[in-house]
Design a protein that fits this description.
- This protein has 131 residues and is mainly alpha-helical.
- The chain has a domain of 72 residues: Dioxygenase LigAB, LigA subunit (Protocatechuate 4,5-dioxygenase, Chain A), CATH 1.10.700.
- It contains ten helices and no strands.
- Helix 8 crosses helix 9.
- The two termini are 31 Å apart.
Length: 131
């Protein structure tokens, strides 16, 4: 029986719930492996070879190789686990977040200094249609 997800219709939002945790389990475990320097070195030396040691789906592996963080989240990745990938690449959380929003790092930083993203248009489509 599918669970009712009243949050599923929020534009541009991927909610990491129990179903996403199940879908992304191996992707997130791969990310956690990058906490160990030896694993980071192995990944840097042969990304595809290291990924093939994990029972992730091919779309998950392709998203990692492309560093498509939005796709990884859509495939069950949790941003806090994904942080291990961009940290392995020597990138900051701010840099990765900017990439995910389609902004430059400077634009993203300024948006956050200005109070963050506007809630306009970022509510449930059901809520928006009610008035």
């Amino acid at each position: 029986m599918a669970l009712h997800k009243p949050y599923a219709d929020i534009p541009g939002t991927i909610i990491f719930d129990a179903e996403m945790a199940r879908i992304g389990y191996h992707l997130n475990q791969f990310c956690m492996s990058l906490m160990q320097e030896a694993n980071r070195q192995r990944f840097r030396a042969d990304e595809r070879g290291y990924l093939d040691e994990w029972p992730m789906t091919e779309p998950q592996k392709a998203a990692v190789l492309a560093r498509d963080y939005n796709r990884m989240m859509a495939l069950g990745g949790n941003v806090y686990f994904l942080a291990k990938i961009f940290s392995t690449d020597g990138l900051s959380f701010q840099h990765a977040a900017a990439t995910m929003t389609g902004m430059t790092q400077q634009e993203y930083a300024q948006m956050m200094l200005d109070g963050g993203r506007s809630p306009a248009g970022n509510r449930s489509t059901q809520e928006n249609s009610n008035g």
